[in-house]
Amino acid sequence: MKHYFISDDGMLLSGIKEITQEIAGSSFFLNPEKTRNFSPEAGDVVVLAVDNSKTRSLLMRVAYKKNCRLLILLDMPVVTTTRNCFPWFAPKKLNARDLLLLLQKAKLAPYDRKRKEVSQKIVDIFTSLGNGYPVEDVVESHKLSAKYIHQAKRDVLYKYGFMSCNSLGVLICRDMLEMKRF
After folding, report:
1. Which of 29, 78, 118, 171 is the most exposed place for a label (fewest CB within 10 A)?
2. HSE of 12 in the Cβ direction (CA atoms, 13 Å)?
3. What CATH topology corresponds to 3-108?
């Protein structure tokens, strides 16, 4: 099993490299702006901490399609999730001990990618919101109430551990919902 640490933050990559020396033989540290060499295999652990939403979305899809154990580190408040299915989410500001513990749990966790059906309506709502459309436009274009849209948004954000929502949470949820369709 290999470990891939992918980030567009060089300081974060150096710090992770320093604290993960014990697994260094099977680790790859990649900056998506400088390298395109990312070909994980099923079961590999992929830690993704990329700020660029398009790059992050692309890398999430690759890891998801390859059946990797995907851990996404986000620059926002998020409840660290170690659910029985991947991907898992955690804040970028984890201390070294917590990151190592999370990596150990991911390595030992059975890989399970449950494909729960997500309604196309919910996917469309998050696609619209993630593409920058205001709620009023989404209400009009989808013929739904604002209350329904806000409740659906709250439910999905809560499901993934995003307690205080911002645009990053909406983008991550959009990418997650779109990934699950494949």
Report:
1. 118
2. 21
3. Rossmann fold (3.40.50)
